[in-house]
Amino acid sequence: MIDQRIRRYPPRAGMRRRRERDPYLFTVIVQIVLCAALLLGCLGLRRFQPGAARGMAELFDGLLTADRVEIPSGTGVAAVSARAREAADHAADAAARVLTELLTPPAAQPPSPDAPGDGAAASSGPSAPAEGLSGAGGWFGRGDAAGKEAPSSCAFSPILVSARVDAPAGGAVTSPFGWREHPISGAEDFHRGVDIAAASGSGIYASLPGRVVEVDSSPIYGNYITLDHGGGLTTTYCHCESIAAPLGANLRRGELVALVGSTGISTGPHVHFEISKDGRYYNPAWVLDGMDADGV
């Protein structure tokens, strides 16, 4: 009689080994990625911040060759963290500056800093660019552009906004964010917003929902209005012919806030638009919906 029972054989050792994963493979891959990132970071620092790279090289060389290294008693985790944050900010600014140079055409040169405003033209809601308008203006600046780093009140690094940010007006960008030659004085200064040229008397509209927290006039920025959008985010609209929204008003995105003008230091009708987070000014081009090399 034939034995019909099924025989079961133990798996071979080789088959069991094939199913087992190398426990060190993931660790090796992570180390390779970290080493590659560190190498790219060092190359980027050497390329875009040569002074800082030389300083770090001298520091490490001193630490490696010193017989004894004394750490100051005041140095702690907080101090190291502060230095790390400062280094990260410098790296982010350098990377953003490179991206800005790559994405901005030669014709678009940067703008000016320390108060609201610089201009260009607008229309009802974001409208089509108005041809033939070239208004610009703003603060004259100090001309201290050594190193081309942004002033402490500004940053080249990107700003992240979860909501859509509409352009306050439609028109050509006559003066972008960053270092520039002032359109009136010819001096080098830092422009902390963007100038959008628009027809005099056309509308300037809220880029985001917010509350009017400041309405004022300045010899430099003319008539301006500031909206608070919560979370430390604010937008400012300058060189206005007149202000349409009252102080304390809660506005929806796209509501009229002012009319385009050429008040303050200005070469023609435009709106100088600024965006700030926790008191620091960022390039509106990072977030403005519909903005390109020609305008908005």
Radius of gyration: 28 Å
DSSP helical segment count: 4
The rough form would be described as extended
Structural class by SSE content: alpha+beta
Instruction: Please report which band the strand proportion falls in: under 5%, 5-15%, 15-25%, 25-35%, 35-45% or over 45%.
Output: 15-25%
Number of strands: 13
H/E order of the elements?
HHHHEEEEEEEEEEEEE
Profile the largest sheet.
11 strands, mixed
Keywords:
alpha+beta, single chain, two-stranded antiparallel ribbon, 296 residues
Task: Characterise this structure.
By secondary structure, this protein is α+β, with helices and mostly antiparallel strands. The protein has four helices and 13 strands. The radius of gyration is 28 Å and the shape is extended. The protein starts with 12 loop residues before the first helix and ends in a 14-residue tail after the last strand.
